[in-house]
């Protein structure tokens, strides 16, 4: 019996757990926990260690499906998986959430993180949530990836649809496993589908308040260690804010003014990413800048600056949803 | 505080540093090719620490990431500001801890002398 392994990775909410559940014939092994950071914007629970599922391709071939946790703070698990559990995997499937503000930032990040791992195996990019946001489209992905020097397969999938996810498997092992009846396999897995049309959604879920989208500001303050947030537009004017302290609010505005001035006068030095102000007895104030928006945060002085940066990056990656 | 400047400049990940007081550079090890970073950092940190003082805040450390670089400003005693240049890839906590450790060490030495 041939045993194949595939590793799924990608940002939080990109569909890793869902894709594995779509394909697995066993009850998947999930290690999810209640969300305690910026991810609350998208879901209430998240994978903290790994996902695992199994699919029998035919009598002679079995596929083991592994999924990494999406959050960067669990990257030690990525290393652990790469060096041990999935050291012999056939391919890395990078799931890319098309609703993120800049999906290519995610691609660059994950390709960089898994660079050594990819030397000996295939990379397949699977774009998800295209039903929510169609653009960037396939051609745009191909052009951008070419510019990045990445010549790889790109497929648009719905992680909830087993037949769709199965296409990824066929792409990876199809040439070596010519005896697999892919159509029959898709039919066998049809019950795993969680595409809305295929399942009856109970009223209590439809009416569940927890399912309502969480605003950027609410998501920020639901994040451990963050006490206030200020969302700014492309013109660096405040869109919304819930920074409680007048002192912090005034200082954040001064920081934003400074950043705006530097963006005009010091553009030749490069793009400003962030500006952080710290003090031993004060909460940390930070401004994170993108072309179309900026985010000001006040956070606990004990919260690591690296964690604050990660949280801000995630919050900004989903913030375009506010305008949809 | 020139000793602090020299000690910080010895750190592998610091590409240049300068000590300033009241808008004036007292001493600098910034390479000539990074003078623009020094100028921007001087203005930015003077502005933000002045604002912090006006608002009676005790914030005394700032980090600005611009292009591929990071400039970090540390407000010292006597309203001096130490500015350090590092790569954006360098862990910011590493920069902070090393500068603080060297500063505290030098202060202890001064007290004992």
From TrEMBL, chain A:
Keywords: GTP-binding, Hydrolase, Nucleotide-binding. CDD domains: Ras_like_GTPase (cd00882). It comes from the Bacteria. Gene3D superfamilies: P-loop containing nucleotide triphosphate hydrolases (3.40.50.300). The keyword Hydrolase applies. Belongs to the GPN-loop GTPase family. This is Signal recognition particle receptor subunit beta. It comes from Marinobacterium zhoushanense.
From TrEMBL, chain B:
This is Roadblock/LAMTOR2 domain-containing protein.
């Amino acid at each position: 019996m041939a045993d194949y392994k595939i590793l799924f990775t990608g940002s939080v909410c990109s569909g890793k757990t869902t894709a594995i559940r779509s394909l697995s014939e066993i009850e998947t092994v999930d290690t999810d926990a209640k969300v305690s950071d910026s991810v609350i914007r998208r879901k209430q629970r998240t994978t903290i260690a790994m996902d695992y599922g199994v699919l029998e391709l035919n009598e002679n071939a079995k596929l083991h499906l592994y999924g990494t946790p999406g959050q960067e703070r669990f990257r030690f698990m990525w290393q652990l998986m790469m060096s041990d559990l999935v050291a012999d995997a056939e391919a890395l499937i990078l799931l890319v959430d098309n609703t993120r503000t800049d999906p290519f930032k995610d691609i660059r990040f994950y390709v960089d993180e898994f660079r050594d791992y990819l030397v000996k195996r295939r990379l397949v990019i699977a774009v998800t949530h295209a039903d929510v946001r169609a653009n960037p489209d396939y051609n745009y992905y191909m052009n951008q990836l070419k510019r990045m020097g990445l010549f790889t397969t790109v497929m648009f999938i719905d992680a909830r649809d087993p037949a769709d996810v199965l296409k990824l498997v066929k792409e990876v092992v199809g040439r070596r496993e010519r005896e697999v009846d892919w159509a029959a396999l898709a039919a066998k897995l049809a019950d795993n589908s969680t595409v809305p049309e295929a399942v009856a959604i109970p009223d209590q879920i439809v009416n569940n308040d927890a399912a309502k989208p969480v605003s950027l500001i609410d998501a920020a303050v639901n994040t451990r260690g963050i006490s206030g947030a200020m969302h700014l537009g492309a013109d660096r004017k405040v869109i919304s804010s819930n920074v409680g302290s007048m002192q912090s609010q005034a200082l954040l505005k001064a920081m934003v003014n400074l950043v705006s001035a530097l963006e005009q006068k010091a553009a030749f030095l490069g793009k400003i990413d962030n500006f952080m102000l710290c003090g031993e007895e004060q909460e940390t104030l930070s401004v994170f800048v993108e072309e179309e928006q900026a985010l000001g945060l006040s956070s606990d002085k004990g919260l690591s600056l690296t964690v604050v940066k990660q949280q801000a990056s995630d919050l900004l990656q989903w913030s375009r949803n506010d305008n949809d | 505080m020139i000793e602090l400047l020299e000690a910080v400049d010895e750190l592998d990940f610091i590409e240049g540093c300068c000590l300033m007081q009241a808008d004036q550079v007292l001493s600098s090890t910034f390479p000539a090719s990074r003078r623009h970073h020094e100028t921007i950092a001087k203005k930015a940190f003077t502005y933000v620490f002045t604002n912090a003082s006006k608002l009676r805040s005790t914030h005394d450390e700032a980090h600005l990431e611009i292009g591929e670089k990071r400039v970090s400003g540390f407000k010292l005693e006597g309203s001096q500001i130490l500015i350090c240049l590092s790569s954006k890839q360098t862990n910011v906590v590493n920069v902070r801890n090393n500068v603080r450790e060297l500063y505290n060490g030098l202060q202890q030495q001064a007290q004992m002398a």
